[in-house]
Amino acid sequence: xxxxxxxxxxxxxxxxxxxxxxxxxxxxxxxxxxxxxxRSAAGHVWTAGVRARDTDGRRVRGLxxxxxxxxxxxxxxxxxxxxxxxxxxFRAEPEGYTNGVWRAEGDTMAHIERFTALSSExxxxxTPPAVAPAPPRRAARTADDPPDRRGEHRGDGxxxxxxxxxxxxxxxxxxxxxxxxHSWAVLSREWYPMVAAMRRMRGHVWHRVYWEPPFTLGxxxxxxxxxxxxxxxxxxxxxxxxxxxxxxxxxxxxxxIRVHVAADASGGAA
Length: 270
What we know:
This protein is α+β, with helices and mostly antiparallel strands. The protein is 26% helix and 29% strand. Strands 1, 2, 3, 4, 5, 6, 7, 8, 9 and 10 form a ten-stranded antiparallel beta sheet that branches. α5 (181-200) packs antiparallel against α7.
């Protein structure tokens, strides 16, 4: 369900901005120093690590750091080495999604009725499509199947050059509180096909999963721009997973999603 009140959601959901700092070829000592600097920075909320590969195959290490306000994130990013590091600030959109025990408006689990409008839909005043039930998952495509372009999006520039978080233009941070290991086992049937579909998207940049005890799983995912992120939400695999977890409380009791857009809003590299 849509919300602007994240007071009952985890601390990551209450952050109003985040900063990405990454270093090509960075070693563990650099990561340790950067992590200590992040945790001691004003307004620090939460930190997650980044491990990725640059366009030339070189290892990239970094951090995704949530902050209380955009000013805190700006100050932290400004401390990055301008020669060796890439830094980018992302600001949270006022409206996001909360469900169940993490919903301030009431303890409910429900799905949104309509997708969020793409930029092209908003500019033309078009109502975004309804979140209709997704078709059943197929084991494999055949030669007779028409091309599936629902997950394709070129974004700004060449998506092949955007493969680390600081090169993304938009991202989402979300999590679900599951009931237990059994729910994870059921989740896996839809989770892995959904991740595979996301990775095939032209607008996908980078993602990782994080765990918080006892049974919360969260996702950090970066895309070339906001439209690419919103197109991911429309993939059948994502629709199946979201409708599955929100239809009752058998497998999950809470969830949230916050969308963050790059402060420069260019969709390219910082």
